[in-house]
Amino acid sequence: MEVKIGNSQINDWRGYKGRPFLISGPCSAETEEQVMETARQIALIKEVSVFRAGIWKPRTRPNSFEGVGSEGLKWLRRVKEETGLLVGTEVANEKHVYEALKYGIDMLWIGARTSVNPFTVQEISDALHGVDVMVLVKNPINPDIELWVGAIERIARAGITRIGAIHRGFSSYEKTLYRNQPNWQLPIELRRRIPDLPIICDPSHIGGARQFLYEISQKAMDLNFDGLMIESHIDPANALSDAAQQLTPNDLKELLSRIIMRNPNPSDPKLLDVLGELRQQIDVYDEHLLDLMEKRMKVAETIGRYKKENNITILQSVRWDEIIKKAIAKGKAKGLSAELIDTMFKAIHQESINHQMKVMNNGVKNQDNDN
Ligand code: PEP
Ligand code: MN
What we know:
This protein is 49% helix and 10% strand. Helix 1 packs parallel to helix 2, helix 3 (94-102) runs parallel beside helix 5 (118-128) and helix 11 packs across helix 13 (338-362). The protein has 371 residues and is an alpha/beta fold. 34% of the residues are buried. The chain has 13 helices and eight strands. Residues 27, 231, 241-242 line the site of manganese (II) ion.
């Protein structure tokens, strides 16, 4: 699959002030004073490129504050005129797009509740045909990379060249420390699939609480994300939405000063030599892992044949429970997290079952036929 995202690199984007590309402003525009005062203070942080504010708010339940609507677009236009910051807001249908463009909004983002819906994303894409505006596509609320890529493709097809993704974490049924699970492997996979697509992390909606914003931001920078979108408000405690996760502009400034920026493209030959040597060692171990996996699956197939001949079921839960418990205990002694062992062994077990199934159901007679 080929996603054409135009030839515009993020550092050629209008308003780009260097990595991290920073977007900040309130979750919601509430009053003209709140927007203007937040913007004046944000404008003093020279690294911020775009001022954000939600005008139409998608709330989980009705009767919460659902945004000020088009009225707020005038305030954003005023922010742009008085501070020189670029301005951005969320759009969730074609009407939002037309309204936002009418007021000269520079950046539109598609929220997590919208990128799950290809009909709506297509409607937004159709409204964007022939328009030169920055568009950022948030990940869908469920961890589905295809939906995310699909939404990006739909926007790219409208001819938008300044297009990027926002990683805002994924909803889950289990209660976790963060408001939304980061599932970092998804944005990493997105980067692998579309290497030129800028990816911006939204620590506010991942963390859901002020105390997590720094660690998430630092992690995003260490993973070489292009930017950060962090919510800010002059009076976070009294914000009408997302009160627990917004920072005052001063606290944002302080957070930014603590972020350590590391070099994504080292060029010093000495550094590269050392890294190259270590990466070779990793490659060798990865080969070992693959060889071991191949051998393990061959044994699984032999077991499958044996079970077939003797009419025994594939799944033996007591045995499986033993394997995973033993592995977690051994892994712990080797400094490996229970999370790794659990994920790894479940995947290996599933693969093993698949190999056994193949043997049982396809009537494979001998080892030479399996592959
Ligand atoms: C927001 O950015 O304020 C927002 C509603 O985000 P999300 O779509 O990530 O929930
Ligand atoms: Mn918010």
